[in-house]
Design brief:
heterodimer; A: 5 helices; B: TIM Barrel; eight-stranded parallel barrel; two-stranded antiparallel sheet; about 55% helix
Chain lengths: ~80, ~325
């Protein structure tokens, strides 16, 4: 599953399914012991969006994809294959 | 019953912010930041989080008097009270022997050191100055609020000391029998100081791995359990009936950091004896028992569970259950 395809699939999903998708990737990032690998700039943006309730938008999804692909690329791939 | 969450600053600050935000949303009152010399500074992390979360209190737990001079602890507490009056707690404890040894420090006379540290910090925070045969210090500024001092304790003598001198006690156990014995020791200490157990905040600082899937919960908790076992004294090991040979094997494997071998060597019973493994209902039952024993605060400590976000939301269900109970009463 390439990330471009994940993005286009995200746009096709209904609101509820988008939230599930975003929650799943956020779970990967929060549960990862490798989150120090995520660029701080990306991490801060994710936190700001999470706290302002904007993480479920397209920009938030893109940031999460970037973060999860950095710290847990294999888990992300498996998760996307199962979800999309 | 009050509820708080432990955050470990081995995670990036942005991640701690997200978890703090989840903590706020699930109804916990505060965050305890653990202090380890190889992690980010709990003190600087506290500064950031106190500014970020105006509704949560933040505790730093625990600072040990070997790495942090009592004057530094008092200075930190007084400064933080200016950032967030009445939202700062300080934990003082003897520190982890292994971590101190790595820093070239021998943990000598832990009871005396902790007692003296608490005395100095308290005096400075209350009166703005402290004086004895060795130290003479006067703050050039005024602490903005009282800062409760919690004593982190595990062994019998430290638990008694905590009961005697602490505004609160952080009981560093998850095993129900040990938590029960700890209450007795703290009570004895409190009585020595002519006060009741109800005059201090008795916090159970738990290691939690919550999940519907026990095998995954065990796996997530294994490294935490191993650290607890390796840092524990002989009395703890004997009381839990652990085989000293297995304990020695775990210590050796942990030193090398071979996680695959650790999962093979550490019996699930040992993990269950040192951490909480189970689902939301079991956690509710466990907390209800602790409440009956006299605990007044539950600190949910890591790893939380194999899936952190899911685990935090399950913890939120547990917190809600107890809040509803209180509202019914």
């Amino acid at each position: 599953m390439d990330l471009e395809r994940a993005l286009s699939r995200y746009l096709e999903l209904e609101e509820e399914d988008r939230r599930k998708l975003v929650d799943g990737i956020l779970e990967i990032v929060l549960s990862s012991p490798n989150s120090d690998l995520v660029p701080d700039e990306v991490g801060w943006k994710i936190s700001n969006k999470f706290r302002s309730g904007k993480l479920y938008g397209l920009d938030g999804f893109k940031l999460l994809l970037q973060a999860a692909n950095t710290c847990e690329p294999i888990k992300l791939k498996k998760f996307l294959e199962g979800m999309i | 019953m009050r509820f708080s969450l432990e955050l470990v600053p081995n995670n990036p600050l942005w991640k701690l912010e997200i978890i703090g935000s989840v903590a706020e949303s699930i109804g916990v009152d505060g965050l305890w930041l653990s202090e380890h010399p190889d992690n980010r500074s709990s003190i600087l992390t506290a500064c950031h989080l106190l500014k970020t979360f105006p509704r949560l209190w933040i505790g730093i737990g625990v600072l040990n008097p070997y790495m942090f001079h009592p004057l530094t602890i008092a200075q930190v507490a007084a400064t933080l009270s200016e950032i967030a009056p009445r939202r700062v707690y300080i934990g003082v404890g003897a520190g982890d022997r292994t971590s101190l040894e790595k820093a070239g420090i021998r943990r000598t006379h832990p009871l005396k050191r902790v007692e003296r540290c608490v005395k100095i910090v308290r005096e400075i925070l209350r009166r703005g100055f402290y004086e004895d045969e060795e130290i003479r210090i006067r703050l050039n500024f005024r602490p903005r609020s009282t800062v409760p001092i919690y004593v982190g304790a595990q062994g019998r003598k430290m638990l008694r000391l905590a009961g005697r001198i602490g505004d609160g006690v952080l009981v560093n156990h998850t095993n129900l029998d040990l938590l029960r014995l700890a209450v007795d020791e703290v009570r004895i200490g409190a009585e020595e100081a002519n006060r009741g157990l109800d005059e201090l905040d008795l916090a159970a600082y738990l290691t939690i791995s919550i999940s519907e899937d026990e095998s995954k919960a065990l796996r997530a908790a294994a490294p935490y359990s191993a650290y607890i076992i390796c840092g524990a004294g002989r009395e703890f090991i004997e009381r839990l009936g652990m085989n000293p040979k297995i304990v020695e094997d775990v210590r050796r494997i942990l030193r090398v950091g071979d996680w695959v071998k650790l999962y093979q060597a550490l019996p699930p019973d040992y993990i269950k004896a040192t951490t909480f493994i189970g689902g939301a209902e079991e956690l509710e039952e466990f907390i209800a028992r602790l409440s009956k024993l006299g605990y007044t605060q539950i600190v949910f400590g890591g790893p939380f569970g194999p899936r952190v976000l899911r685990a935090l939301r399950m913890i939120g269900e547990v917190v809600k259950h107890f809040e509803e109970d209180i509202n019914r009463e």
